[in-house]
Every structure is written in structure tokens, then in C-alpha cells.
């Protein structure tokens, strides 16, 4: 302590004694001994600039306790930094949730950092590019889990790819096949093969290779690997098809409104075109760990209603509709990223010819016409597989 500070303290004590303060009388001896000890200390340090500022601030505001002054000063500094100084953080905001909500609802959201169909990473070693076509409606939580997972999975395999969410935004029943046809037509021509991929099926085994299907359609989610369906003619879940082969069979039938059977009709088309379906070998993971099935049928029930003559028509091969006859229009196209995974969202409005498929809308609660048994009906036209549910279907939702 400097002499100036000592004289200040000493005069303060003298003042207290002169005015008869009990503090001065009772503590004068203690102060004297304390000062002597402090004066003889070997650890004397000159006051810092901060302490001088605190003392001046205390004197100016007439605050007797220096600790109070420190707290007031710190509080003022905090408010100054919080409200007046600009943020120095350059970390990008993860707006995946809001962006996906806006894009799927048709609102005007666009990621200006991405161009339509552009990908964040390109692998020169891969001479092909895959368009992942994801038929979609009201599966928002599943989408947020699926997109980052499949993007990372394919990047690990160094596969060029782009994800297309074909979102049905009309008021008709869900039509997975028509959405796949629309997605095929709207996806980039740079993608020379497509993956017809369910949003609720996540590949878990790295041995599942999303390879260019040179020798014919490649069924990644093979019956012996799929967590739910195990019958021999099953080709749903994940199917890779060359663009040439998809056009060869005229895509998928557009008659399948509601859930089920469009994959079985597509299998009949591939078989008729003499296209051999390739599948992975017997992986050690089997049908329990190869894929993660994230659909909960108790939360989102599948639309299995049959009305008008739907059951009669959809059990047979469709030779009238397909890629060349699909009717739709694109309401909007949104380019977003979900956890750094680029995605193109196609908001699609499907059109329905109610003279051909009146079951595209079953809101009138019209019952289903019983099946007719026509004489001379070709067995090849019947595409509904006869299943033993205990053997070929796992009841896991």
C-alpha cells in the first residue's frame, strides 16, 4: 500500500476516534497490529489498474463496500456485451426442422447455398449417380431420421447420389407408385439409376452396397433381409433400377391408391420383360439387424380400405397405365439441407380419373364389390401372391 492509502486509512481511524465512534475505540489496537504485520510483509504488491478503477468507481458512487462495486461493474459489462456488441460466432444455424416443415407444407423456403439437384460431395471414383426416390406423406419424424442416415451411409460407400422426397400434397389417397413415376420424370437426367426407397427403412449393415444395377434390378431389401416381408416375389423396401429398365417396363401402375400390391404388380412387369432381379448374398446380420424399421403402425395406420371394384382390379396385371400415363403437376420444388444432407422436395399434386379408378377417394364409404371369377382368366395376370402369413410376414409393424 502506498503512503497515500495509509494516510487515508489512518485519518479515517483518527476521524472515528475523534468523534467517539465505538468502532475506533474498540478496533484501534487491532488496526495498529494488523497494519504493522502488513507493513512488514514480504508480499507487498502494487495495486493493479483494475483495483484503482474499482476504487475510483466506488468513490464516485459513494459505495462503501468494494465487492458491491465489482458486482455492479460486472453486471453493466454483461449487459453491454449482450445487447450492444455484435455476435462473433460464425457457426451456421441448424434450421433443418423449420426448413423441412416449410418445404413440405409448400411454403417459400429455399436454401440459397444449394442449386437444384446439387450435392455437397462428389466422388470421381463412382462413374454413376443414383436418384433416391422417396414417396412421402405425413411421415415427418421418419424423414428427419432417414435423410442424414442414408446420406452418411452412401457417402461412406463413396456413392454419388441425390435424395428426392416426392411429397403428395393433394387430398386423394396415397399413391406410392404414381409418386415414383413422377419422381422418375422430375429427377435429374444425370442420375442414370434410381432407388425406389421407403422412408421408414434404414440400412444398417455396411455390406449392403447400393451398386449400379448393370445386370438387372437389384433388390437391396431382399426377402431374407427385410425385417417384415419374406415371401419370394417381394421386391419392396429398397429396389435399384437402371433408367433404361424403368422405361422399358413403363414404370409402375397408377391404379394403386391406398396401401399395398403396387410392388407385386411391378414384379410382374419385370418378369414379363425378362429382367433378372439380383439380390445380396446371405449376410450374417439376417432379417433382424440388416435394416432398422422405424414405422409404428399403431401411430400411423396404413390405408388398407377397399372400395368400389378396387379389390377386383388391383389383384390383376395392369396393362393400361404406367410411367407414360401418370397425371400430375408439380406444385413447388424446394431445395433444403437436413443436417448437412442436401434434399430436393417435390410437392406433387396427383390427378385421378374416377371413371378408371374411383377408389382414389373412398370418403363416401362405398363398399367393395365382391370378386368375380371369370372363366378363362389367365393365371399370369393374377399378381396377388398367396401368402402364409406365419411364414412370410413378421408382425412387427
UniProtKB/TrEMBL annotation:
The gene that this protein is the product of is: B4GALT7
One of the protein's GO biological processes:
proteoglycan biosynthetic process
Q: Which CDD domains match?
A: b4GalT
Question: So, what pathway does this thing act in?
Answer: Protein modification; protein glycosylation
Organismal lineage: Eukaryota, Metazoa, Ecdysozoa, Arthropoda, Crustacea
Cellular compartment(s): Golgi apparatus membrane; Membrane
Q: Which organism is it from?
A: Halocaridina rubra
Q: What EC number is given for this enzyme? A: 2.4.1.-
What this protein needs as a cofactor is: Mn(2+)
**Can you quote a single GO CC term?**
Golgi membrane
Q: Where is the Galactosyltransferase C-terminal domain?
A: 217-293
Biological role stated in the UniProt entry: Catalyzes the transfer of galactose onto proteins or lipids.
Domain of life according to the entry: Eukaryota
What is this protein identified as?
Answer: Beta-1,4-N-acetylgalactosaminyltransferase
Recite the UniProt keywords alphabetically: Glycoprotein, Glycosyltransferase, Golgi apparatus, Manganese, Membrane, Metal-binding, Signal-anchor, Transferase, Transmembrane, Transmembrane helix
Family per similarity comment: Belongs to the glycosyltransferase 7 family.
Does the record bear Glycoprotein in its keywords? yes
Enzyme class of the recorded protein, top EC level = transferase
Mind telling me which residue stretches traverse the membrane in this protein? Answer: 67-85
The terms under GO molecular function for this entry are: metal ion binding; xylosylprotein 4-beta-galactosyltransferase activity
Amino acid at each position: 500500500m502506498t503512503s497515500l492509502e495509509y494516510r487515508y486509512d489512518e485519518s479515517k481511524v483518527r476521524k472515528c476516534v475523534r468523534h467517539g465512534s465505538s468502532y475506533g475505540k474498540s478496533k484501534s489496537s487491532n488496526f495498529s497490529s494488523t497494519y504493522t504485520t502488513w507493513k512488514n510483509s514480504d508480499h507487498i504488491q502494487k495495486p493493479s489498474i483494475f483495483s484503482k478503477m474499482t476504487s475510483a468507481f466506488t468513490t464516485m458512487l459513494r459505495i462503501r463496500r468494494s465487492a458491491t462495486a465489482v458486482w455492479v461493474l460486472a453486471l453493466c459489462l454483461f449487459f453491454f456485451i449482450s445487447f450492444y456488441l455484435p455476435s462473433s460466432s460464425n457457426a451456421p444455424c441448424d434450421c433443418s426442422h423449420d426448413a423441412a416443415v416449410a418445404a413440405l407444407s409448400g411454403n417459400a423456403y429455399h436454401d440459397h447455398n444449394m442449386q437444384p439437384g446439387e450435392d455437397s460431395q462428389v466422388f470421381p471414383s463412382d462413374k454413376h449417380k443414383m436418384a433416391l426416390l422417396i414417396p412421402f406423406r405425413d411421415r415427418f419424424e421418419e424423414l428427419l431420421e432417414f435423410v442424414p442416415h442414408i446420406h452418411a451411409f452412401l457417402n461412406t460407400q463413396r456413392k454419388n447420389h441425390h435424395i428426392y422426397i416426392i411429397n403428395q400434397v393433394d387430398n386423394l389417397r396415397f399413391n406410392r407408385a404414381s409418386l415414383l413415376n413422377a419422381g422418375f420424370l422430375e429427377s435429374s437426367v444425370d442420375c442414370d439409376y434410381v432407388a425406389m426407397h421407403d422412408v421408414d427403412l434404414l440400412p444398417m449393415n455396411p455390406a449392403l452396397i447400393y451398386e449400379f444395377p448393370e445386370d438387372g434390378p437389384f433388390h437391396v431389401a431382399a426377402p431374407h433381409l427385410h425385417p417384415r416381408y419374406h415371401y419370394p416375389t417381394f421386391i419392396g423396401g429398397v429396389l435399384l433400377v437402371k433408367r433404361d429398365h424403368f422405361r422399358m417396363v413403363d414404370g409402375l401402375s397408377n391404379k394403386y391408391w391406398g396401401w399395398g400390391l403396387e410392388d407385386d404388380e411391378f414384379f410382374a412387369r419385370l418378369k414379363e420383360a425378362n429382367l433378372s432381379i439380383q439380390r445380396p448374398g446371405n449376410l450374417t446380420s439376417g432379417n433382424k439387424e440388416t435394416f432398422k424399421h422405424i414405422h409404428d403402425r399403431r401411430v400411423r395406420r396404413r390405408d388398407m380400405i377397399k372400395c368400389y371394384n378396387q379389390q377386383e382390379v388391383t389383384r390383376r396385371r395392369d396393362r393400361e397405365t404406367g410411367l407414360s400415363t401418370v397425371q400430375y403437376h408439380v406444385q413447388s420444388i424446394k431445395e433444403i439441407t437436413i443436417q448437412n444432407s442436401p434434399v430436393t422436395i417435390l410437392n406433387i399434386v396427383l390427378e385421378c380419373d374416377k371413371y378408371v379408378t374411383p377408389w382414389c377417394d373412398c370418403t363416401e364409404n362405398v363398399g367393395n364389390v365382391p370378386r368375380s371369377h371369370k372363366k378363362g382368366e389367365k393365371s399370369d395376370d393374377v399378381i396377388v401372391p398367396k401368402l402364409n402369413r406365419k411364414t412370410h410376414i413378421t408382425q412387427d409393424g
